[in-house]
Design a protein that fits this description.
single chain, 133 residues, three-stranded parallel β-sheet
Length: 133
């Protein structure tokens, strides 16, 4: 969720929404919403995990442009919300639709773990590294 500001961008993300949340995947508010760019994101978990459904908050426009509604295919999401589960792995499986889908002009040089991004990067915080499987 974003509020006010100028020239804010939400790009190249993987957004997972708890289907019981009854909210929105992304939302913006304030007086300057015309300067927000929301593009090139992968969203999963909208109502009953039906990728064809995109619920749009009234303050977000054009979110469907370059937005993929699909399972990101994480390596191991575990048994649900369980703080004792130690094997969560939000890296991407080789067949993930997020791989190679990022807009390179808006990709940081390193991923969440400090590893260099590829020239054609994955959406989300963790770059897919097939050579590390």
């Amino acid at each position: 969720s974003l509020s006010d500001g100028r020239n804010n961008r939400v790009m190249n993300n993987v957004v997972v929404v708890d289907t019981g949340f009854n909210g929105f995947a992304m939302s913006i508010s304030g007086d300057n919403t015309d300067t927000f760019t929301i593009a090139n994101n992968l969203i999963w978990g909208m109502p009953v995990n039906t990728p064809s459904t995109l619920s749009i908050d009234s303050d977000v426009t054009a979110i469907a442009e370059n937005t993929t509604m699909a399972d990101p295919l994480f390596v191991d999401t575990g048994p649900g919300i369980d703080p004792s589960y130690a094997s969560y792995d939000f890296g991407l499986q080789t067949c993930s639709p997020a791989i190679g889908a990022a807009r390179s002009a808006f990709v940081p040089c390193e991923d969440f773990y400090g590893k260099m991004r590829r020239e054609v990067s994955a959406q989300g915080a963790i770059e897919h590294r097939s050579d590390e499987l």
